[in-house]
Amino acid sequence: MLPVLSSAAAxxxxxxxxxxxxxxxxxxxxxxxxxxxxxxxxYLRSFYRDLPSLQNAGVGGPQTGLPALREGFSPQxxxxxxxxxxxxxxxxxxxxxxxxCHQPHLGFADGRGRSVGIGGQVVSRSAPSLWNVGLxxxxxxxxxxTSLEQxxxxxxxxxDEMGNSPARLQTDLNGTPAYVALFRQVFxxxxxxxxxxxxxxxxxxSSLISLNSRYDLYAQGFEEALTPAETEGMNIxxxxxxxxxxxxxPPLFTNQQIAVLGTPEPEGLTLDIGxxxxxxxxxxxxxxxxxxxxxxxLTAPYMHSGRFATLREAVEFYNKGRGHAVPxxxxxxxxxxxxxxxxxxxxxxxxxxxxxxxxxxxxKPAIPAAVPSGLPVPVLSHSKSxxx
Length: 388
Ligand code: HEC
Ligand code: HEC
Description:
This is Cytochrome-c peroxidase. Keywords: Heme, Iron, Metal-binding, Oxidoreductase, Peroxidase, Signal. The protein has a two-stranded antiparallel ribbon with strand order 1-2. It is mainly α. It has helices at residues 47-50, 75-85, 98-101, 148-157, 166-174, 177-187, 194-206, 214-220, 228-238, 244-247, 276-279, 311-317, 345-355, and strands at residues 34-36, 42-44, 258-260, 287-289. β1 and β2 (42-44) form a beta hairpin. It folds into 2 domains: 34-50 and 67-210, Orthogonal Bundle (Cytochrome Bc1 Complex, Chain D, domain 2), CATH 1.10.760; 227-358, Cytochrome c-like domain (Cytochrome Bc1 Complex, Chain D, domain 2, Orthogonal Bundle), CATH 1.10.760.10. Residues 1-12 and 383-388 have low confidence and may be disordered. α2 packs across α7, α9 packs across α13 (345-355) and α12 (311-317) packs across α13 (345-355). The structure holds heme C (2 copies). One heme C binds next to α10 and α12.
């Protein structure tokens, strides 16, 4: 189904095609949805900020306010981050970019149960969507990073993801004249430092905002934006029987907490201890960060290991009984909201209908037609006209 982005043999490092690339012009304007202020920073415009009815500090319900966003990045920082995000120069063998596993057309996930890194290695978890990551406080399924900058270090230097080393990344970037020129424009520096790379990547990712779905129109007061089936699904989602909104709290549809659910691993794999790894806390064994459900129809398969192929299967998990998939001999401290709602089949269908109303890709960024290294951009594109 998915075209495989073949990576060259690990021993050969792809050379830039056609010699040094021209220095691209960086954007002077903010991405859609952001306004440029006098400090040359981009700030989000959203009705979640403009409507007093959507600024409640309390938790739960459609009136809950938006969490703090990483913003104020300059248009140039954001655009440089975009080029880096799509550039396979960042990996050891120059075949894998961030975008290889976070494909714009797949909700910034990759359509796989578990991602595939350098040399075809299968990594242990599924790639999460990057929509709205600028509004999150912790990153990775086990919540082990607390900033986007800290997060970026993970894939860049993991042997099974991009396989790079800090020294080689710095050498490659400083050996690419177009990047030297761009970093000089943006950071007023002669030598590219990795902190600047992490910052630019964070700036770009923070611009991936999805808050204009039909559900958001509903939250604004346009009740007819949802179909009757979706409205019914929303009411089930919020009900104290289903309890979905206790963890998948609007407006991001995550409360950003770690929760132990006891979801099953793929056939043949042992339990992923999840947040117990970084925290060392046995009560977090098998615990994962509550994922946002925004653009969820675009990011199948589901859960940390992609165990469920469809949204219907993922939703049905909650109906199958508390702890039904916990491996024998494991004692997990399951979250108290994981219970046995005994929803009817049609209620599960309505939940799936409602989740379909959380889709909005209106601010999808343009995929660069060329990146400063001159290497091919490893992204599946629906049409050439989307590139610029
Ligand atoms: C080989 C595939 C792969 C590549 C390449 C990759 N990622 Fe990821 N990304 C993943 C996987 C898998 C996870 C989840 C890992 C985990 O939770 O342990 C993840 C997690 C993330 C997260 C956390 C999202 C959240 O909600 O917690 C961010 C942000 C992210 N990646 C950004 C990047 C950036 C930036 C790059 C490039 C520097 C990159 N990724 C490269 C596969 C990849
Ligand atoms: C106790 C908190 C909690 C409750 C209640 C809860 N969820 Fe979740 N949800 C999570 C966590 C944590 C995950 C990730 C689990 C994993 O990967 O093993 C998740 C994953 C999901 C996913 C897959 C997301 C993805 O990106 O792969 C869907 C869909 C989902 N939940 C829907 C629901 C629905 C519908 C309900 C109500 C019936 C619900 N959830 C109730 C915490 C919760």
